[in-house]
Amino acid sequence: MNITALASAPLDDPLYYLRNARQVIQLCLSQYADLLLSEEAALLEQLLSLDVSAQALLLRMVMRKGTRFRSDNVSYNEVPDQAHALRQLVEARLVDDQPEVSIAALGDLCRREECRVLAQHLLPEVHFTASARKSDLVARLTADFPSEQTRPVDDWWPEIPFQLIELRCNALFDRLRLMFFGNLYQNWSEFVLTELGLQQFEPVQLTAESRPFQSRAEVDLYLQLHRLQERVAAGESIESVCAELPSPVACDWIDYRRQKVLFQLGREAERQQQIELALALYQQSQHREAQLRSLRLLEKRESPEQVFNWAYAAHARIVQPETRLGLRRIQQRCARKAGLDYVAPKNRPVPVESTVLPKPEQGRVEQAVIESLSDTDTQLFHVENRLFTGLFALLFWPALYAPIRGAFFNPFQSGPADLYRPGFSDARAEWLDEGFAQLASGAYRTTIVQRLAQKQGISCSLIHWPSLSAPLVEAALALIPASHLEAIFRHLLLDVRHHRRGLMTLAFPFADFRQHQRLLSETVYKGISTEHTLLLEAPTGIGKTLGVTYPALMAMPRRQLDRLFVLTARTTGRQLVLDSLSMLRPVAATDASLPIRVLELTARDKV
């Protein structure tokens, strides 16, 4: 089955999110029909048969955080008759308009004055002042009505001024999201924020053997791992969660996920000073960082000589340079403490030739360097880190887009999902060998030049097309020996994650957007993507600033932009922008460091 047989909806369509979501549902119904229960498939088919307004209302709620909503908070222009749409959703058993809730849940949904009226209704003998804080009102209500006590909303408050709506299909949509994205950290909003119509994607043919999920049990296992993480994040004890950890599974990419969860739980146990549990979790995990963390803990309790030997053995076994560097540091510390005769390998010195150039009066520094050093015999190019990853992708294109199980889930992927997993190279040994054989035979030049023309513009996570011009590629192929390219490409394959960087994998620093922050981010992204001017009026705050900087950065590589100008006041506004970038950096560091340089220019005169 070809997973590229989908067409994205244009962003000027007010129902673009629904058009995209319908295609996701249809793809899952066709690709994973055997992994859905009959009642789940029937529910999805029924959803697709409802009025467009009912479908739109449901998808709007699915895209938002939580499962309970006030009727006055789910009003949208594209749903003119909310009551009619809601009736259809209730009749289809997709939502519940009379859910049973605890008083704490109801209090969270009420505004302060509503909480006061509710408290006065339930506790008439108590006088609640008009200035009472919401937190105090909710605390008093929960003290009198335990959280395990649930009732229909009308039983709590017959005169409630809004209707409470609860999703009944959120678990099913989590399942769909997992099957479509291949993970649960991407949400529907991220899919909506992507201007798919401006991009082309390489077609990938999925077979029964390469389908990521082969059984419903595999989907259930992934969901179970996710729930275990959520329980720990919610404050449940690590011990109780670890008791439910699943055993190893045959599917490599899902078991890699299990190994990663073991490592993450180990990190949390270590933060809580549960060292024995952390060590046990690290030692069960094959995640490359687990061994490093384990050795760092053992440094504090075992003899330096013993830890040195363990680190030495691990260093010989692990090939990723970043991890090997951490192991080498452990060896150096332990050798020093144990008095061992150990000299760490020294890095080969890089020859440096320094030239001082006058500061350019205008333009970029890189361009000034190019102009200064170029002559009739020398041509310079500013490539950053994009040249070698681009050449690699063009030569090994069949390997990147090979139908490997667990690599491709949907038609909107710029690259394989397993690009950063340890088994990436082993799973593609045949295709990689073909590429290296071309380097040996000399055929690689023709292949790269031809693919540069054939694949131009196709979204690829290793290529920034504006930086990969034909003159640059031809010059590189003419001047760089094949043996050097082979060494660079083999080094890149050792640790693709740390050997390339980019904005394309930038993630939002929180689990979800706030209600109005999502709308702000979507609007900013659409404005930049469609090259329109956008005038926004909103009070200054970190939420609004982050809601602008994040989508702006996300849109930059897709619109081939390399600069973002932000004009702010010198005090609060400036700091908010810097804070928002600081919040994005740790998130980016989990995949690739944030490739941003901040230049501050301060006006001497007020403007």
From TrEMBL:
InterPro entries: Fan1-like, FAN1-like_WH, FAN1_SAP_bact, P-loop_NTPase, VRR_NUC
GO BP of this protein: interstrand cross-link repair
Domain VRR-NUC: 442-502
Domain called Fanconi-associated nuclease 1-like winged-helix: residue spans: 15-96
Alphabetical UniProt keywords: Hydrolase, Magnesium, Metal-binding, Nuclease
Cofactor: Mg(2+)
Residue span(s) of domain Fanconi-associated nuclease 1 SAP: 102-150
GO molecular function: hydrolase activity, acting on ester bonds; metal ion binding; nuclease activity
PANTHER family xrefs: FANCONI-ASSOCIATED NUCLEASE 1
Entry protein name: Uncharacterized protein
Protein source organism: Marinobacterium halophilum
